[in-house]
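Minutes, project huddle
Topic: does the predicted pose make sense with pantoate bound?
PN asked that the exact inputs be recorded in the minutes so nobody has to dig through chat later. Recorded below.
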Amino acid sequence: MKLYTTITSLQNALKEEHSKGLKIGFVPTMGALHQGHLSLVETAGSMCDIVVVSIFVNPTQFNDKNDLANYPRTLESDMNLLATTRCEYFFSPAVEEVYPVPDTRKFDFGNLETVMEGAFRPGHFNGVAQVVSRLFEIVLPDMAFFGRKDFQQMAIIKDMVRQLNLPIEIVPCDIIREKDGLAMSSRNKLLLPEYRNCAPLIYQNLRDAKYLVNLKTVQEIKDYVVNQINATQLLRVEYFEIVDDTTLMSVESWSETGTKVGCIAVYAGKIRLIDNIILDIN
Ligand code: PAF
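Predicted holo structure (C-alpha cells), as shared on screen:
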C-alpha cells in the first residue's frame, strides 16, 4: 500500500491501472477507521482489481465547528489497519489540495436533503456532495462503496451520480455492529463510558420497532421508540422517522407500498449517533 498526498501523484499512479482496463474500487472515508470501514475495503477488494481508500476530514460537510475540531484524527493507526487489507492506494490530501479555491457549488437534492439529517445539519449534504464529487473526479473509480449506516447520505450520493451522469456504480454495504448492537462509527471513540454503556439501547429500540410493525400504528411506534430512549436520561432522541427507502418521504401507514426504514439520530451527551433499520417491505 502506498500513501499519496497530492492529486497529481495519485492520478499519475492510477493512470497506469486505468490504461490496463483494471476495475477500480473506491472507499472514501474521514478516517478513525474501524471494522465497518475495513468491511467496505474487503467488499471493494472482492469486486474490484484495485482498491483506493481516501482519508479526508472534509470541512465543508461540518455545520458545527466544534464537531469538526473534535472529529477523531488517527492517521497512523488508520494506516496500520489499512496495511492489513487489500487497499493498494491510500490518498490522504490536505484541505488546500482538495479545495485550492473555496467550493461554491450548490447541489439540489430536493426532499432528499431537507428531511432528517438535512433538517438538523443544514449544508451538510451539500458539503458531502462537493467532496465526494471532487474525489470521484480525482480517482475516477468504477465502483464506490458506502455504508448503509449513513442511509440518507447513500440516497444523496446515488442522486448526485445520477444528476452528474457519472459512470460509477454505488455499492451499499451492510451496517457493521459491535457485539452489543451499537452501529460502528468513528464517533463511538468519543463516547464517555456511561454513554457508551447505554448507547446499545438505540439499536435495541430499532429492533423493538421492527417487532412491533403491524401490531402498532406508525405513529405509536415512533412515540414508543422516542419515549423508551429518552427515558434513560443519558440519551436524547433528535429524530426518529419512518420513511420510504427511496424517496425518504415520511410513511403514514404500514399499508403504503415500498420499503420502510426507521432512521434515528440520538445525542449521547455531546456525541451524536445515527442508526437505521429496515422495518417493513411491501
Ligand atoms: O461517510 C463519510 O465518512 C463521509 O461523509 C464521506 C462520504 C467520506 C465524505 O466526506
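Observations noted during the meeting:
- The radius of gyration is 19 Å.
- The domain at 2-173 is CATH 3.40.50.620 (Rossmann fold).
No decisions taken; revisit at the next huddle.
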